[in-house]
Write a structure and sequence with these properties.
The complex is a heterodimer of chains A (114) and B (240).
Chain A: H1 2-5, H2 9-26, H3 40-45, H4 49-63, E1 64-65, E2 68-69, H5 76-91, H6 94-111
Antiparallel strand pairs in A: 1-2
Chain B: H1 2-6, H2 8-18, H3 21-37, H4 42-51, H5 55-66, H6 71-81, H7 83-96, H8 101-109, H9 113-122, H10 130-160, H11 173-186, H12 190-205, H13 213-229
The chains are: A mainly alpha (114), B mainly alpha (240).
Chain lengths: 114, 240
């Protein structure tokens, strides 16, 4: 197999190291079993963290291309997001949000190159 | 363990995650395609797809691996890209700490953006009541099982079918739409909407920061703004 010849031992170790990094970052504050609690202000602040994290992940993926804010309205993502939002507030379904958004996105993106 | 799978909350968790699974799946699929397209060998890509379970750090690491970057650079990059999960682990700690270490680390490994968000939406407060804890663990297990499967299996499929699926189609955008739906379901009060707005704008404004640190800065900015806007009377959080 050619594939095995192309496989590099260091890369394998690096990939396993990345899996370890996944565990260590995601379980970071689970490792020590010392008893401590977050200060009250931090606990209060975490109420806003989940939605902030989602917005921080997705908004750049909707309005930026190659690290630049888009300067055109001929972008399939804008219409897909609009239709996805409309579906969500009309029907409240996640599945429908994805399907309706993609039903607009794919023709515009593949068909028109937007 | 078997009681966990039979608990009604296991099915509830699985169902909540299933509704966004198509988005996760197409994202996973395109990540699989990207791994092969950017030059990982088949065994390397399969190993990464099976073990790393972190989309953004996979996508950040692949170009570095192909460019032959030193291992510590790649691992440090993976760490930084994952920093938001360190914040999530601080949030989830009171829910998790009664478990033995191996269970806690397994829970950590299974924490993805969506499992964190859906879990804290279902259970806004940790509990010391064993019955509630069991329900929380069952929900988490159902949630994580569907999330893991709907990310990993399409990822492996993407690796195998890499040459048949053109990345230019942009199928991965379904993942963004899935997160958008979840985001909307989280807008339960005005300040949460403010949080989303501030975080989104900040993430775009500081996008040029390396290592996806824009996400961390955006979360910090949104939380800070919301806490400043809060009325003092809501400052006391009920603890159980």
């Amino acid at each position: 197999m050619n594939a095995l010849a192309n496989t590099d031992g260091w890369t394998i170790i690096t990939i396993l190291g990345m899996a370890l990094v996944t565990v260590v970052t995601r379980g970071f504050f689970f490792i020590s079993s010392k008893t401590w609690t977050l200060p009250a202000w931090a606990e209060r602040g975490l109420y806003y963290a989940p939605i902030a994290a989602l917005a921080a992940v997705i908004v750049p993926e909707m309005v930026m291309t190659h690290g630049q804010f888009i300067s055109t309205v001929k972008d399939a993502r804008l219409y897909a997001v609009a239709v996805g939002l409309a579906w969500f507030y009309w029907r409240r379904g996640m599945f429908g949000t994805i399907v309706a958004g993609m039903a607009v996105y794919l023709p515009l993106h593949i068909g028109l190159g937007w | 363990m078997t009681t966990l799978f039979q608990h009604p909350e296991f099915r509830r968790g699985a169902r909540d995650m299933s509704s966004v699974a198509p988005g996760i799946a197409s994202w996973g699929l395109m990540t699989g395609v990207a791994m092969v397209k950017s030059g990982l060998s088949l065994p390397e890509a399969l190993l990464m797809g099976l073990t790393v379970f972190a989309g953004s750090s996979q996508l950040a690491a692949i170009p570095l691996i192909s460019a032959g970057a030193p291992m510590w650079v790649i691992l440090a990059t993976a760490f930084c890209v994952n920093l938001r999960f360190v914040v999530f682990s601080a949030h989830l700690r009171p829910y998790i700490m009664h478990q033995p270490l191996w269970r806690r680390m397994l829970s950590g490994y299974m924490t993805a953006d969506l499992s964190y968000v859906l879990f804290t939406r279902r259970y806004p407060q940790p509990s010391s009541d064993p019955v509630v804890r069991q329900a929380q663990e069952a929900y988490w297990a159902g949630n994580s099982a569907v999330n893991w499967a709907s990310w990993t299996i399409p990822g492996l499929l993407g690796i195998v079918l890499a040459n048949a699926i053109p990345p230019a189609w942009g199928l991965g955008f379904a993942g963004i739409l899935a997160l958008l739906g979840v985001l909307c379901s989280l807008i339960t009060d005005r300040l949460r909407a403010v949080s989303a707005g501030v975080a989104g704008a900040a993430a775009v404004a500081v996008f040029a920061l390396p290592l996806k640190l824009n996400i961390l800065v955006a979360i910090a900015a949104a939380v800070a703004v919301c806490m400043l806007l809060e009325k003092p009377k809501v400052a006391v959080v009920a603890k159980t």
